[in-house]
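Sample pair:
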Amino acid sequence: MIRSIIIDDEQHCVHALISDLQKHCPSIEVTDSCYSAKEGIMAIKKLSPDLVFLDVEMPWMNGFEMLEILGEVNFSIIFTTAHDEFAARAFRISAVDYLLKPIDAFDLKAAVQKVEMKMEKGSSFHHINNLLRNIRQPFAEHKIALPQREGYEFIDVSSIIYCQAEGAYTKIFITGNKTMLISRTLGMWKNYYQRKCFNGYIILL
């Protein structure tokens, strides 16, 4: 069983998530529910969970501020948020799992399965730490997680020259005459960088 904690200031969201986990994710055991970041910090230190479902927007202290106070992150995280425009860049660029509210059961199962795979490989903490670095730093200093056969490779966003469509893949041209073929469509990269896209290319301006 994966021991988890839910941290969300909206009580109805907590109850709905617990119900969905019981129905669709039998490997998840909810050991505690917290309705503020302060409660969440105390529960994490006391219970040492394997997984935390963490709401991003909470009063007084948001999810990211809570993680900064905790310092070392030695557990997996699935973020929950109602703000798609914020999540799309901050989470996906760091290959961090997140769920949009209201949470869809299919998305929940998929997110839990991804976390289970990362936990088996021992790579989930690295993704969270990369997310926190990206939040603290200017965009030009961000690192992006590029999916590879054996996991992810983190590279500097500023080292990417341009991206080119290759069917269902994207060819990324990087400084130093390096290229990488990624199993993501070009449209996804356009959403990440919000740059101009034409003739099958994204040009980073």
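The longest helix spans residues 105-121.
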